[in-house]
Design brief:
Elements (H helix, E strand, L loop, with lengths): L1 H5 L1 H5 L2 H10 L6 E5 L5 H8 L3 E5 L3 H12 L7 E4 L13 E7 L8 H11 E12 L9 H8 L14 H10 L3 E10 L2 E9 L3
Parallel strand pairs: 1-2, 1-4, 2-3, 4-5
Antiparallel strand pairs: 5-7, 6-7
Helix pairs in contact: 3-4, 6-8
Bound molecules: S-adenosylmethionine (SAM).
Length: 201
């Protein structure tokens, strides 16, 4: 809880979430899923664009904050904040037009199960964008801040052990997704790993 409060400003409004939502491009009326929604920077952007958002978040503290934030949104009727995790999405089969996760993948305890869940909930043609920032990359604007707070950046003490993008891409492809692309790139001026794909039409 203390760790999340320290990062509250960047978890409330996040440039990476803006960039990811630009890739997801939610349209009015679409049903979309924010996996590991946290304080909801992606959720509120998608609801503001007119999509109906299921914000999946396993931590009660974060869900509580997002529930309050939801009430402040003009599009609050389009936001559902629900208990769940990537490994068990509380979303019906083949109902999601799009799904994304920002800085949450590194928390997944069972990525294979997560990939299977994504394939289960996406409807034909539905798209997925999974992004984790690489705070251990010296090109990241918050590299020094993270290193001074978390030691040598070996990933063990702040929970940001980097996900193997290629493996995550292989898991999505193995679960049946198509047009899967996985690797390092820059988003919002930050080095990230990104995994994208879509359910077959
Ligand atoms: C660093 S925060 C990022 C939150 C938000 N996506 C953002 O961009 O600000 C990571 C979030 O992932 C959630 N999380 C932890 N384990 C998870 C899991 N297995 N599946 C999905 N989310 C998880 C945490 O509770 C936390 O809210």
């Amino acid at each position: 809880m203390v760790r999340y409060l320290r990062f509250a400003p960047r978890m409330w409004r996040s440039e990476v979430n803006h960039a990811v939502l630009g890739l997801v491009d939610p349209a009015p009326g679409e049903r979309v899923v924010d996996v590991g929604a946290g304080m909801g920077p992606g959720t509120v952007l998608a609801a503001g664009a007119g999509a109906s958002v299921t914000a999946v978040e396993p931590t009660p503290f974060m869900r509580g904050i997002l529930q309050v934030r939801r009430l402040l949104q003009p599009g609050r009727a389009r936001i559902s904040v629900v208990d769940g995790a990537a490994e068990q999405l509380p979303v019906a089969d083949q109902t999601a037009d799009a799904l994304w996760a920002v800085n949450a993948m590194h928390h997944w305890t069972d990525p294979e199960r997560g990939a299977a869940e994504i394939a289960r909930v996406l409807r034909a043609g539905g798209r997925v964008v999974l992004v984790d920032e690489d705070f251990d990359d010296p090109d990241h604007p918050e590299f020094e801040r993270f290193r001074s707070r978390h030691g040598d950046g070996d990933g063990d003490d702040h929970g940001f052990a980097m996900v193997d993008a290629q493996r995550m891409g292989d898991l999505l492809a193995g679960a049946g997704l198509v047009d899967v692309a996985a690797g390092r790139r820059e988003l919002a001026g930050r080095p990230v790993i990104a995994v994208t794909g879509r359910a077959a039409a």
